[in-house]
C-alpha cells in the first residue's frame, strides 16, 4: 500500500470513529425539542458507514459509491428537517420542491453506476460517466449551499444563534464537496490525495455539527429570501441547460467518434446563441420570477383572513372601545400584531392632535403632535414612517429632521401610517412595536398603505355624516328659535302696552311705583334677550368698544354669588376691546357651569390678570372635572350636553363669542380635581401697537 492509500485508510477510519461518536452523542444528549435530532444522528451514522467502506475498499468500488449516495441523501434530508424545525408545514411546502430536486439529482448517481458497470466498453464512455457524475455532485453542492444560505438569512436572530454550528458544519461539508468534484471534472479523474482528505473532512465537520444540537430550538422561524431563491432557481435552469448541452455533445462524441466533431461544434454554437438570446430576456426572467414567487413562496399575510378580520373589527360597534377611531387603530394594529396604537387627526386649524388611543394611554402626546411639514411630506409621497430607519439615519424625502422628539425617543414607536382620502391627509396612525420585533418589509408597506386608505374613507364618511347631522340640528334649532323670538316679541309688546296704560290710569302712587319698576325691568330683560337671540347665528358683528375686564367680572360675580360662593381673587385694571355684553354672557355661562359642577361649600374663584399682550380671566373650580375624551370630543360640540334636557350650546356659544372678539378660550380639567377655564382677549394697547405696525408696513410697501 502506497502512502496515499495509507493516509486514506487512517483518515477514513478516523472519520468513521468521530461520526459514530457524534451520532451517539446526538441520540443520547441532543436537545429533545429538535425535530431534526434523529435526522442528524442518522446522517452521521450513514457518513460513518461510508467512511468505513472507503477505508476498506478502493475509491471506485460499488460499495463505496452506494454508501456515499446514502450519506449524501441523509445530509439533504437533514437540511430539509432544519427548515421544518419550527413545526410549520408552510415552510416545508416552500422548500420541498428544491430539496426533492437535489435528492433526484443525487439519485441519478445510481444510474451512472449501472452504466459504468455494464456499458463502459470504451475509455471515452467511462470518462463521460466520471465527468457526468462530477457535474451532478457539483450541482447538488451548489443547490444545497444556496438553500443553506436561505435558511440562515431567513431565520430570526435567536434562531441564528442556534443554527450557526449546524450551518457552519454543513457549509464546510458542501463547500469541500463542491471543490472536490469540480477539480475532478477539470482533471477528468479523482485525485487520490484529495480523496484521502475527505475522511479527515468528515471527522472535522462532525464535531461542530453535533455541538449545534446542544442549543434549544425554541423560536425558530423561516422567512425565505425571494431574491436569493430567484437566483437559485435561475442557477438551476442555467445549470440544467448547460448540462443538457454538455451531455448531448459528449454522447455524440462517443456514439459517432471523430466524425461527429463538426456536429458537436455546431451544437455548442447553437446552444450558446440560444442562451445569449433567451437568458437576458426580460420576459423570460419575469416569468421565472413570477413562477418562483407563486409556487415557492407564501405571502406573509393571509389576505382573505386579514380582510375579514378588518371588516369585522370596523363594523363591530358593540366592542368595549366603541368609537370608530379606536376601532380603526385596533383594525390596523391587528394586522401587524402591534399591541397598541394612536390616531392623530387634524383640528380646525389643520394641526394634527391626538384623537384616540388604543391600549396606549400612558404615552404623553403634545398638542402639536406632528409638524405641518412632515404631514405634507407624508401626504404628498404616501410615506409610511419606519421609526427604526429614522433612528438609524435613513431617509427618503428629507423627513428625518421633521420627526418630533416624542416619537423619536419613544422606543415602542414602530411605524406611522398616513390615512389618505382622495390624496388628502385625514390622519395618522402610530403603531407600537410588536411583541416579537421584526423589520418592516415591502409587503407590510403595501398592505398598511391600502388599509390606511380604507380607514381614511371610513373616517371621512363619519365626519361628513356628523357635519350633515349638525347642520340638520342647527336648522331645527333655528326654526325653534324663530317661534321663540315671535312669542317673546309679542310678550314684549304686550308688556310695553301695559306699562303705558299703567302710567296713565294707576290710582295708587305706591302700587304704581312698584308696578312701573317691575314692568320696566321685565321689559328691559325681554328686549335684551330678544336682541341676543336676534344676533345668534348671524354674520353681523357689533362695533368693538373699549371696556375693563374687571367691571364685567365684578358684575358677573355679584350676580352669581347670591346662590353660591364666588370669589374675585385678584383684580387689576385691564382694558380690552370687544363687546362687553357678549363677554358677560360667556363669563356667566362658565361661572354657572362651575357652580353646577361643584359642591355647595366649594367656592368658585375668578381672577383678572394681564401678561402684557392679553387680558385674562380665569374661572377655577374644584368640582367633578371632565375626562380628556369629553374635553376633546364633546365640550365644545353643539347639541352634546351632559345635562338632562340641555341644549349643549353654552360652551360652544361662549367660545364663538370670545373668538369673534379676537380672543380664545382654553380649558384644563382633571376628573375629581376640578376645571380651569382661561379667557384671553387682546389688550387695547397691544391692538393699537399692532394696528400701527400694520399701517406702517402698508406705507412701506406702497412706497
UniProtKB/TrEMBL annotation:
The chain crosses the membrane at residues 6-26, 38-57, 63-83, 95-115, 135-153, 165-187, 199-220, 232-252, 258-279. InterPro entries: 2C_sensor_his_kinase, GAF, GAF-like_dom_sf, HATPase_C_sf, HATPase_dom, His_kinase_dom, Sig_transdc_His_kin-like_C, XrtA/PrsK. It catalyses: ATP + protein L-histidine = ADP + protein N-phospho-L-histidine. One of its GO terms (molecular function) is protein histidine kinase activity. The keyword ATP-binding applies. Keywords: ATP-binding, Kinase, Membrane, Nucleotide-binding, Transferase, Transmembrane, Transmembrane helix. Its EC number is 2.7.13.3. This is histidine kinase. The gene is prsK.
Amino acid at each position: 500500500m502506497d502512502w496515499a492509500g495509507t493516509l486514506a485508510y487512517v483518515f477514513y477510519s478516523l472519520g468513521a470513529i468521530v461520526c459514530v461518536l457524534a451520532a451517539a452523542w446526538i441520540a443520547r444528549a441532543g436537545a429533545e425539542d429538535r425535530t431534526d435530532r434523529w435526522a442528524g444522528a442518522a446522517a452521521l451514522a450513514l457518513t460513518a458507514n461510508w467512511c468505513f467502506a472507503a477505508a476498506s475498499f478502493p475509491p471506485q468500488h460499488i460499495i463505496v459509491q452506494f454508501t456515499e449516495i446514502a450519506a449524501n441523501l441523509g445530509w439533504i434530508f437533514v437540511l430539509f428537517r432544519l427548515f421544518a424545525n419550527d413545526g410549520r408545514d408552510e415552510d416545508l411546502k416552500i422548500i420541498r420542491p428544491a430539496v426533492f430536486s437535489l435528492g433526484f439529482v443525487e439519485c441519478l448517481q445510481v444510474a451512472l453506476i449501472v452504466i459504468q458497470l455494464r456499458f463502459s466498453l470504451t475509455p471515452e464512455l467511462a470518462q463521460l460517466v466520471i465527468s457526468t457524475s462530477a457535474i451532478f455532485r457539483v450541482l447538488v453542492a451548489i443547490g444545497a449551499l444556496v438553500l443553506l444560505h436561505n435558511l440562515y438569512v431567513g431565520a430570526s436572530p435567536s434562531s441564528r444563534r442556534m443554527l450557526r454550528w449546524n450551518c457552519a458544519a454543513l457549509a464546510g461539508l458542501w463547500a469541500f464537496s463542491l471543490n472536490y468534484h469540480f477539480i475532478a471534472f477539470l482533471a477528468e479523474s479523482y485525485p487520490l490525495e484529495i480523496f484521502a482528505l475527505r475522511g479527515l473532512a468528515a471527522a472535522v465537520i462532525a464535531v461542530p455539527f453535533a455541538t449545534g444540537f446542544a442549543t434549544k430550538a425554541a423560536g425558530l422561524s423561516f422567512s425565505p429570501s425571494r431574491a436569493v431563491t430567484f437566483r437559485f432557481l435561475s442557477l438551476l435552469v442555467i445549470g440544467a441547460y448547460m448540462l443538457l448541452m454538455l451531455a448531448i455533445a459528449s454522447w455524440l462524441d462517443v456514439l459517432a467518434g471523430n466524425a461527429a466533431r463538426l456536429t458537436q461544434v455546431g451544437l455548442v454554437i447553437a446552444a450558446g446563441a440560444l442562451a445569449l438570446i433567451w437568458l437576458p430576456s426580460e420576459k423570460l426572467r419575469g416569468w421565472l420570477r413570477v413562477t418562483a414567487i407563486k409556487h415557492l413562496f407564501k405571502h406573509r399575510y393571509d389576505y382573505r383572513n386579514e380582510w375579514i378580520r378588518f371588516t369585522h373589527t370596523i363594523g363591530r360597534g358593540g366592542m368595549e372601545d366603541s368609537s370608530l377611531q379606536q376601532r380603526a387603530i385596533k383594525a390596523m394594529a391587528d394586522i401587524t400584531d402591534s399591541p397598541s396604537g394612536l390616531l392623530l387627526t387634524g383640528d380646525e386649524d389643520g394641526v394634527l392632535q391626538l384623537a384616540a388611543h388604543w391600549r396606549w394611554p400612558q404615552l404623553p402626546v403634545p398638542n402639536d403632535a406632528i409638524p405641518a411639514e412632515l404631514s405634507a411630506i407624508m401626504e404628498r409621497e404616501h410615506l409610511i414612517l419606519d421609526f427604526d430607519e429614522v433612528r438609524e439615519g435613513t431617509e427618503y424625502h428629507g423627513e428625518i429632521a421633521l420627526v418630533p422628539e416624542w416619537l423619536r425617543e419613544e422606543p415602542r414607536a414602530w411605524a406611522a401610517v398616513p390615512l389618505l382620502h382622495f390624496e388628502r391627509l385625514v390622519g395618522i396612525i402610530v403603531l407600537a412595536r410588536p411583541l416579537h420585533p421584526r423589520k418592516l418589509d415591502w409587503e407590510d408597506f403595501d398592505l398598511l398603505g391600502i388599509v390606511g386608505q380604507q380607514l381614511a374613507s371610513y373616517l371621512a364618511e363619519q365626519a361628513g355624516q356628523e357635519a350633515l347631522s349638525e347642520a340638520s340640528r342647527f336648522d331645527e334649532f333655528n326654526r325653534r328659535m324663530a317661534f321663540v323670538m315671535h312669542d317673546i316679541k309679542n310678550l314684549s309688546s304686550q308688556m310695553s302696552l301695559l306699562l303705558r296704560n299703567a302710567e296713565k290710569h294707576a290710582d295708587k302712587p305706591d302700587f304704581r311705583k312698584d308696578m312701573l319698576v317691575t314692568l320696566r325691568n321685565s321689559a328691559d330683560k325681554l328686549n335684551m334677550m330678544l336682541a341676543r337671540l336676534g344676533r345668534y347665528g348671524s354674520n353681523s358683528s357689533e362695533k368693538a368698544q373699549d371696556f375693563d375686564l374687571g367691571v364685567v367680572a365684578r358684575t358677573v360675580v355679584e350676580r352669581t354669588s347670591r346662590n353660591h360662593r364666588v370669589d374675585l381673587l385678584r383684580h387689576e385694571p385691564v382694558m380690552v376691546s370687544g363687546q362687553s355684553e357678549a363677554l358677560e354672557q360667556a363669563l356667566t355661562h362658565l361661572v354657572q357651569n362651575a357652580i353646577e359642577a361643584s359642591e355647595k361649600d366649594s367656592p368658585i374663584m375668578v381672577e383678572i390678570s394681564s401678561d402684557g399682550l392679553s387680558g385674562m380671566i380665569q374661572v377655577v373650580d374644584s368640582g367633578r372635572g371632565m375626562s380628556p375624551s369629553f374635553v376633546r370630543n364633546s365640550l365644545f360640540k353643539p347639541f352634546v350636553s351632559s345635562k338632562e334636557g340641555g341644549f349643549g350650546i353654552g360652551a360652544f356659544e361662549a367660545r364663538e363669542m370670545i373668538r369673534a372678539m379676537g380672543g380664545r378660550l382654553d380649558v384644563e380639567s382633571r376628573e375629581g380635581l376640578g376645571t380651569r377655564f382661561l379667557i384671553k382677549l387682546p389688550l387695547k394697547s397691544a391692538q393699537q401697537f399692532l394696528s400701527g405696525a400694520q399701517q406702517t408696513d402698508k406705507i412701506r410697501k406702497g412706497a
